[in-house]
Design brief:
2 copies of one chain form a homodimer.
Chain A (H helix, E strand, L loop, with lengths): L5 E2 L9 H11 L6 H13 L2 E3 H10 L6 H13 L3 E3 L8 E4 L7 E5 L5 E5 L1 H14 L2 E12 L1 H4 L4
Parallel strand pairs in A: 5-7
Antiparallel strand pairs in A: 1-6, 2-4, 3-4, 5-6
Chain A binds a DNA duplex (25 and 25 nucleotides) through α2 and α4.
Chain lengths: 158, 158
DNA sequence: GTCGGTGCAAATGCTTTGCATTGAT
DNA sequence: ATCAATGCAAAGCATTTGCACCGAC
């Protein structure tokens, strides 16, 4: 049987991202500001999943003073530009992930320990495309989360 | 090629649900109240996806006076009981779906028109189980959402 | 010099909570 | 009778917005 998944991240060249964003902004008549660049940099630095509050902290850590309002506004722009997407786990707050130029990355959460594992599955993407084709839809993206119990979580409780 | 999906709902006998809930409550030393029964009934009546506010309306429509607080509290209990799960689409508000005794139901959203289609795919569940097995995890559930453009949405804009 | 952008603080809107009262067992 | 549940209104919190000032083009 074919290996259904390829676990874990491979670093991707991040260089073109800022020009992608720049181009997007220009096409909309919007401006490329220091704050927007800083937000994108912080996101690239984290590379995986992040939430708005974390991003604020990352920005502070790097000595960048970007307001919460601007951070949220930039997150929206980056979504419109197709650079990041939301990846929701609970209704408390939104989680985002960088996707531009990457394979879709899916998530498995342990219901006991909360451990989170990322993986990617080409088979899943194929299945998605097949489902869309069958119904006459054009796929854009997907979100897949598995809820499970990790090996550590299997331990009998005490 | 095997048909990857089976579209759309088949009515399921809903009779045992209330006793499942009743049993769950008893096991936790909690009480089965009229309000809790009313909330579960309203959920069964909708059968598909719902959000808290909609549920309130459904309850009102049926002439049941359940407060917002109790509705939210009951939704949590039903999640703990494994009768419903969250199925998030956006960060604005939580969406829930009835799952007890059903095949997992997944969703496809049109990015242009907002149209929502439910489907179920046994193949997806198999893939999920395979992924879990490979990493030594025990699957509990999953959430799969496809973002796509529906045939109607393909129309050139005007 | 023009707009669009930014920060701040206030506003929003879904969800949760404290508390006095009510009700299931 | 007891202990949990309810309803109400207030509180929480992530996210959004109005507005006066600032800065990219």
């Amino acid at each position: 049987m074919k290996n259904p998944i390829t676990e874990s991240p491979k670093k991707q060249p991040t260089a073109p991202l800022c020009s992608v964003f720049r181009r997007f902004l220009k096409s909309k008549g919007l401006k490329y500001t220091i704050e927007r660049a800083d937000v994108l940099d912080a996101i690239i630095a984290r590379d995986g999943l992040f939430e708005a509050e974390e991003l604020l902290l990352e920005l502070r850590r790097r000595g960048h003073r970007v307001s919460k309002a601007t951070t949220y506004r930039t997150i929206h722009l980056l979504q419109d530009a197709g650079i990041i997407v939301q990846a929701l786990f609970d209704s408390k707050q939104a989680h985002y992930q960088l996707i531009y130029g990457k394979e879709p990355r899916d998530h498995m959460v342990c219901m006991k320990t909360g451990r989170l594992v990322e993986f990617q599955s080409g088979e899943l993407t194929q299945l998605r495309d097949r489902i869309c084709k069958q119904l006459g839809w054009t796929p854009i993206g997907h979100r897949f989360q598995i809820y499970a119990v990790s090996p550590e979580g299997q331990q009998p409780e005490r």
